[in-house]
Amino acid sequence: MTQSRSPRQPQPRLTHPLRQAWTQVVRTARRTTADGLVVGTSGNVSARVGDTVLVTPSGVPYDRLGSRDAVAVDLDGQQVLGALKPTSELPMHLAIYRETDAEAVVHTHAVHATAVSTLVDELPAIHYMTAALGGPVRVAAYALYGSDELADAMLEALRDRSGCLLRNHGTIVHGATLDQAYDRTAQLEWMCRVWLTAASAPGRTPSLIPPDEMRRAAEKLSGYGQPG
Description:
alpha+beta; Aldolase_II/adducin_N_sf
């Protein structure tokens, strides 16, 4: 596993783009706790600025983080900014940035999504918002947290998807912005809750959206929202 190291050379300045990105990382991390997607310091958030990845530190409550606590690594995991240790899940974040064009990653231990990850190999297409994640959401095989094995399993589950479930662990979702990654994360947790609720009805089986309808939904969602 790639290990991050505390920098021995003078720290680079927290430039305006990096400061902006760090502010958004902290804001998003705080949203995950406020919205009940994580408990304590579980979960983590990152954003990419060029070849620099700003990431939440390990084991520090998000409400205590300020501008002086910024942590950044390069794409090889070498720490280039900050004295705090990066999140233990750094291998997953870096794997996504190396293999996709993502600019932001959100990882949570959301309750309903984690429950679903223990029950199925793929979240059924219970709602058309499944299309926003690229299709039915796969469950990555279980591996020890923070390991290269988990990062590899995650990449397999993320093929042609922007999010996946992690077996007995939680969710990981990426996007072009932190707002997009967070919204997709919240939608995934909501869909898991819907599926669990519907599947719990005695003697009933939830109806699912067929693939052709999912493709139509994906096309329509591509133009959703305001122009520009």
